[in-house]
Write a structure and sequence with these properties.
The chain has 811 residues and is α+β, with helices and mostly antiparallel strands. The protein contains 20 helices and 43 strands. The structure holds beta-D-glucopyranose (BGC) and 1-deoxynojirimycin (NOJ).
Amino acid sequence: MKYGHFDDDAREYVITTPKTPLPWINYLGNQEFFSLISNTCGGYSFCKDAKLLRITRYRYNNIPYDNNGKYFYIKDGDTIWNPGWQPTKTTLDEYECRHGLGYSKFKGVKNGVEANVLTFVPMNDRCEVSRIRIKNTTSTAKELKLFSYVEWCLWNADDDERNFQRNLSTGEVEVIDSAIFHKTEYRERRNHFAVYSVNTKVDGFDTSRESFLGPYNGNDTPDVVTNGACTNSVASGWSPVAVHQINVTLAPGEEKSFVFVLGYIENDENDKWESHGVIKKDLAWEMLDRYKTDEQVDKAFDILVDYWKSLLSKYHVKSSNDKVDRMVNIWNQYQCMVTFNMSRSASYYESGIGRGMGFRDSCQDLLGFVHLIPDRARARIIDIASTQFQDGSAYHQYQPLTKKGNADIGSGFNDDPLWLIAGTSAYIRETGDDSILDEMVPFDNDESVATPLMNHLKRSFDYIVNHKGPHNLPLIGRADWNDCLNLNCFSAHPGESFQTFGPSEGPVAESVFIAGMFVKYGEEYAQLCELKGDKADAEYARCEVQKMYDAVLKDGWDGEWFIRAYDAYSHKVGSKECEEGQIFIEPQGFCVLAGIGVKEGLAKKAMDSVKEKLDTKYGIMILQPAYTKYHLELGEVSSYPPGYKENAGIFCHNNPWVSIAETVLGDGDRAFEIYKKTCPAYIEDISEIHCTEPYVYSQMVAGKDAKFFGQGKNSWLTGTAAWTFTNISQYILGIYPTLEGLSVNPCIPAEFGDFNITRVYRGVTYNIEIKNPNKVQKGVASLTVDGVEVAGNVIPFDDSKKTVNVIATMN
Ligand code: BGC
Ligand code: NOJ
């Protein structure tokens, strides 16, 4: 069952009922000001950091699930309704929500009144603009009342939901005409404030939540709206809100438009007052002036639409398969931008106060983002590397505002260092800009110990070399990619962190997954060494990679598949010898995509085992059989009920690894079959089972052991976005950036048909036509570049050209 449909020409998903199985959200903002917005207008905004600079309040764990947002109420006689249905939930005569790229549109119709809301964050500004147009489609005049509503968050979202003894006394606002300013804590340690305003004279306002709602009401029945009159309350402590009242008279057929702006302003620390206790508002007035008229709003919106159009033109496919085209050309790239911006901080499943930017997460996000805006990727790499420690290990997370490592979680996730190589290599392969390797980058943000980035990569590589266990495999530390494989923690009491409890950095527990990563990214590191002319380092790296390869074949192979790890007692994890958790997906996918066991015939066996033991109709499960008991020696992985999350869920993130592995083996049919199983556009029809948004990937789909097999959770912020885009764009469709230029080597289903790709790469536009007359799955027999046949698969890079026409014929 579907709850809407794709509108590819508009690049929108159109939701046609507000009663989706879960809130279906969108992200507004590309740079500093961000909003999450659901299909019923729930959500919140923040600037730069979802924890430290939260602008509006949202309540997780709420009833109903998605409650609190930026709402408009329309009072038409005794009928009160919202264009996005919530929070009054008055039945609408018509409803539509269109989530687009960086904007959302809502249409609500009730009793002949039509309201259209357009909400977006303009480029290069720290605000959200919402334009509401209200039209009277009846033949009699209408006297309506329009109310706006947002609830302020007292900036630090973590503190805001806990420290009531203080917070209930600190709230402060100022009101000047239509502009409501939120200035809590401005007096002491803040030089920023927020404003919510509208481009018309108002008939009333409220800034105290209690006055607006009444002491016993929720935002579904605000007293002020029921009574049809604001009280002009000025909040002092408690919970400041911003509410405007506009009385709207509409003749038959008449439409009126109002522009609301929710802005964030930072003043100069030394020049922040207008007069004693009165905030300096010049920057706010200037901002409000930028969005005063419909024309200004239209212009800002057009700029946003054009921006996305041009960004997405960097990779564009035209095939006979509209679902692939839709995902590749629009939604998958869009999700890559969102994961780049958010890492794992703020979604409807990540509260925005916990994780900040993940070291491994953000490095992987780069893989799907770097072609969009290479300069931002470059800056991000430097930020991430700046949180690395001198021994090559790294803080697992850092805060986007401060860019400082998060001491609570600390380091010791032993896959982290290698992801830095992955992200940097992707950046250089994309841009050819090896100057990044010479950038001086601090360790743990300490500039006095800065070294060139290349040296950071060396320390990443050496960290693995210097931290091996009894089988010469990498030590796992607190966990590797699988955060829940806590082989050194032994947490037995509730409340302890599974990851940071106990010895954590044991000398025995080893990860075959990290070994696979080392083989893959060790080679990429060796290539960067060569690029810099460090032949000896390249040779040393390749020699270490070979040793690791051999160690995996010797002690990481279980007969039919790769084992997952050795625990702190040197017992195998993910082996046929285990009672539960006999096979894990991660080493199968990663070892094979790294090329391990291909020539020995083991890779094919591993893939067959995945198909036989882990595959389901909704995707490949992370492990089987599910853990039914808590294994102290394994940690959090065995704490989840069977079928959920890391305990035998379909973790979408590593499905593309297996698909890529299949392309390494040349099985295009199977690679594509795996691609389709978790691909949003392909499962749109089962939205009532899948439940999460049908336009983006979720972190997890419940596995076959779970009660709700096939149900998605944790949508949006997942490495699945970047890895799937890498898979489909670079391996299946086969346009892979190498250090020398673009390589063309698709691996597709026999029946996929011919296709064209436009790829903007290092400033050159490539029009690539791929022909497959004999329906092979892999293999390019000839490559013609601007009419000249070239040897091999790589289009030689030539920056003197602006456009290059390529024909690749498979055979
Ligand atoms: C959390 C787990 C979670 C995992 C992946 C870990 O940090 O402790 O509960 O499943 O990350 O999201
Ligand atoms: C989500 C985390 O953000 C990511 O870092 C981790 O690799 C996966 N879960 C698997 O545990």
